[in-house]
Fold Argininosuccinate lyase.
Amino acid sequence: MWGGRFSAKPAEIMQAINVSIGVDQRLWAQDLAGSRAHCRMLAAKGIIEQADADAILGGLDTIEGEIRSGAFPFRDQFEDIHMNVEARLNELIGEPSGRLHTARSRNDQVTTDFRLWVRDACDRQIVQLQGLQRALLARAEQHAGDLMPGFTHLQTAQPVTLGHHLMAYVEMFGRDAGRFADARARMNENPLGAAALAGSPFPIDRHMTAKELGFDRPMGNSLDAVSDRDFALESLAASSICAGHLSRLAEEIVVWMTPMFGFVTLPDDLTTGSSIMPQKRNPDAAELVRAKTGRIMGSFVALSTVMKGLPLAYSKDMQEDKPPVFEAFDALDLALGAMTAMVAALQPNTQRMAAAAGAGFSTATDLADWLVRELNLPFRKAHHVTGAAVKKAEALGVDLSQLPLAELQALDARVTEAVYKVLTPEASCASRQSFGGTAPDQVRARIADWKTRLA
Ligand code: ARG
């Protein structure tokens, strides 16, 4: 393709380090779309003859058919997807194929293809995230009133509902979808027509190709167009944050599934057994969702590192942009799919969760709040009195709600029987009516909000 000024073929090692077709053949559909748009624009602007354009478009259709049927010869000798397509086009239609690359370089071609691919990937994540949110919403609605312990430091803190806990993830995944949408909107500009780096002397119409490829406008600087990969990085940043959320939920499923917690089980088809220990039921899918985070976050680091010291404009380093992005999105596709399946299939042991919600002095804050409300104690003082009550209950081996009134009155003589009403986990949850709080009607209201947002 560029042999004119060369008299020797590339060394085997040159070929080995240079070849990228094994990776970038995944861009074939985007490459054909970009070539079609470019070809039509060249003909519309009179830069190439309509007859040549027709031959090119016909050849591209044949190539698409070959790729879809598996008959297309992807060849290492042609380095990447762009040259493989062009070489095949030449075999199919002969000389007119050579006119397609007028006013174009692989530099603007590859970044156009890649932008289109990443744009689709972002759209796909948004759809998948919404699917996961819907699965969470359905489960949250089922369990809007079911108690579980809320934790800080993984120590029992205050009772919450399972619905409230699941809705926390609906919020997170909503922001994740928003990040993909933001990244998509920012990346949706057309680099095609930047050519090698400086633009083109031909009367090309970059608005026309932008429109055909669904971009909002042409990019405003040809150097920037061929040399930045921030769109890919931004999608990896969004992926990394999303993977972090998935990993936290995965971790909770793993913990909740241990017999010591016994909060949830997963059905046979989403767990695995052990080859030696017959009793085992392992949450492998959750563990792998948690582990995929490593690849995804690693991809962001890999691509940032590739990009960080490159002078403008294109450098071949940028060919290394694709493996991390493909790897990250493959991992995220799987992680989102697996998490959605697990959320839909989780079988909570609501009795065990409710029992745990009431254990561990989880309503101690409610006692302190009662002392503030009813006896007008300063909160710090109430905190101290409650701490003493917990200490006493612990010594007697009872829960706060079972602590005799006389013991409470020994701490403050004004305590009455009424205090016991706030010491149950049900009352604790129901009392947290602040917006976004864990009271079941609050949780149901937020579920309703999200249903509207996702409708
Ligand atoms: N395969 C190359 C890549 O992915 C295409 C661009 C090649 N451009 C060049 N000037 N060698 O980056």
Remarks:
- The chain is about 60% helix and 5% strand.
- The beta strands are 147-152, 155-161, 189-190, 217-218, 264-265, 347-348.
- Residues 137 and 447 are 6 Å apart (CA to CA).
